[in-house]
Design goal:
single chain, 66 residues, mainly alpha
Length: 66
């Protein structure tokens, strides 16, 4: 009878411990993966439209917008 009484009273604590353990494990995996990949290099953003240039029909219809 003591086992069943103890289960309900400590269920919340056990669930919180499990979740904390799971989150810790995921954080370690993420840190390990980031360390393995190295720092991310941000790609320079390309401006699609230049405010000083007029928009032409050729610009709108050209699939190779270089």
């Amino acid at each position: 009878m003591g086992i069943h009484y103890d289960y309900k009273s400590t269920k919340g604590n056990k669930l919180m411990e499990k979740q904390a353990k799971r989150e810790k494990k995921l954080a370690e995996k993420k840190a390990k993966r980031l360390a393995k990949e190295g720092p991310k290099q941000e790609e320079p953003k390309i401006k699609a439209l230049d405010p000083n240039k007029p928009i032409s029909l050729d610009f709108l219809t050209n699939p190779n917008k270089e």
